[in-house]
Amino acid sequence: MSTESQNGYMLLFRGTHWDKDLSAEEIQKMVTQWYAWFERLTQEGKCKAGHPLEREGKIVSGRTGRTVADGPFAESKEAIGGYFLLQVETLDEALEIAQQCPGLDYGIDVEVRPVAEQCAARTRALEQLAHATA
Amino acid sequence: MSQLQDPSRPAVLRSRTTAEDRPPTAEISRLAEHLFRHEAGKLVSVLTGIFGLERLQMAQDVVQEALVRALQRWPYYGIPQNPAAWLTQTAKHLALDLIRREKVFRDKEAEVIRLVEGQGPAPAAAIFPEQEIADDRLRMMFVCCHPQVPAEAQVALALKTLCGFSVSEISRAFLTTDAAIAKRLTRAKQKIRAARIPFEIPAGEELGRRLDGVLQSLYLLFNEGYKASSGEKLIREEICYEAIRLTGLLAEHAAGNRPKTHALLALMLLNAARIPTRLDGEGNLLRLKEQDRTRWDQPMIARGMFHFAQSAAGEEITEYHLQAGIAACHCAAKDFESTDWRQILSLYDRLVEFDDSPVVALNRAIVIANIHGPRAGLDTVAAIPGREKLDSYYLLYAVLGEFEAQLKDPLAAAGYFRRSLQLAETKSEQLFLSKRFRACEDQILAQRR
After folding, report:
1. A&B contacts, CB < 8 Å
2. The whole model's pTM is what?
3. Within a domain: A2
4. B83 to chain A: nearest residue by CA?
């Protein structure tokens, strides 16, 4: 499986509520840094989109999608707080950008994922079909 | 950008794809220095005004959440035209949401909403929201500086609720632990509840008395920041500026606009103006005569002189007036040699009448020495009433050492500097004293050759 992608890379910012103990001063500093970072990447054409995600939503699960529960919960280290969709050529470039995230100093994790050409499951299915019919 | 003006409506997520709808990067400067910190202080006061002192914690939590929301949204959607208004609206809506969940408020909901929306009980409140905010801030000041709140706790409480400092910032300033500060804050809040301290600006005769208490607390706050001692230097300086800001707010308000408030403000400004030159590049303490006066903050000195002039009204002379006068004499002198020592002495002569502290008398002795020479200085120190109280005070020996050095007795001077070094607590003071000590040692060696 390749980690290089023609379709760009996604940065997923993990960890919500890491900021609840920050001082007002630190929050202001972060607003300024994050804003400048996002602005710059957008103007350089490297970031196609980015959004914060609201803290609380719902989780749908179960066979018929009938289970709708509250979640993900606050104080979650894994909960996704937002994303950037990067338009860069290589994983290395995406990683370099991820390393600039101002939230890293405060315990935010940045997950970097290549955007796939097509769904991996569909790729496997097509390969199996190719094998079977070869 | 309507989603920014109404945070209660769910944000419509739109990608910023075209250059035209992206705000310019000059926006970053729209965030005034310490905006979040100062807004937090203001908002906590306003929310406390609406929901009561018992809900102080809720007010603080709500304000923190509002700041966090700004952090979440502004980087992506741009900084709003009026950041302070956005924060205020968000905090108010969050507070309303919390309150709505409480049964007891369902009955009074309409009334509470009106209060929150600013259409308060008195029509005047809607027309002059600025005044309401100023009033709430003053109410909070009178609470934080209440005589029944222990002094240490007053400083922590003021920094947290009025100045928007975090517990961690406060503990770093005072070289203690987060837990210790949290405890101080808890005790303060307990005291407030137990003593049923009201959220109000005192009136009539009580105002005069309570105002003295507030001034004293603000003076204490300033001194905490000014002490060139332990704790993170930068944060301590910020505390000085916060004390100045709060005293300024007090002076602007009808309840606090008295000559003595201006005197306190003047003394803070005139001392703070010299902060940039107190230490040299290596963290060594610089004495007045060594400070580079071109780096004194001239606009701050001008402001200080302005308030000093304001303080000259009325008939009451306070210690603040005298201390401001002394600071003004220093700031007005273009160099150490031009200092009007006689004027300073006359101010000290009056100051010792107010304050019989031997430390004040010691400072006066330095002035005497500047006018009449080091021998007179030594005699004055020896004659200080209560002089034995200075026995463990490192500055006493530093001063005596200076006098002996000027009298060309490096042996005696070295003895004093060594004693002083044993008692000094901070690094910069120790550095300074050991330099003086070594200079004396060099002189002793030179004399023996």
Report:
1. 87
2. 0.83
3. no
4. A28
- CATH code of the domain covering residue A65: 3.30.70.1060
> pLDDT tens, A67-117?
888 777 666 777 888 999 999 999 999 999 999 999 998 888 999 999 987
HSE of A42 in the Cβ direction (CA atoms, 13 Å)? 25
By the 8 A CB rule, do B331 and B312 touch? no
B68 touches chain A (CB under 8 A): yes
Residue type, B151: A
Helix, strand or coil for residue B228? coil
In angstroms, the separation between the Cα of residue B198 and the nearest Cα of chain A is 27
Q: Is residue A21 part of a domain?
A: yes
Could you read off the pLDDT of B168-177 as tens digits, one per residue?
A: 999 988 889 9
* Inter-helix orientation angle B358-372/B394-406, to 10°: 10
Determine, yes or no, domain membership for A96.
yes
The answer to whether B169 faces chain A, any CB pair under 8 Å, is yes
CA atoms within 13 A of residue B378's CA, in its CB half-sphere: 15
ipTM: 0.83
Among candidates B15, B74, B169 on the partner chain, residue whose Cβ is nearest the Cβ of A31: B74
Q: pLDDT grade, residue B142 (50/70/90)? A: very high
Domain assignment of residue A3, yes or no: no
CB contact under 8 A, A32 and B11: no
| Element counts in chain B: helices (H) and strands (E) | 22, 0
**Structural domain count, chain A:** 1
Quote the minimal CA–CA distance from A95 to chain B in Å.
20
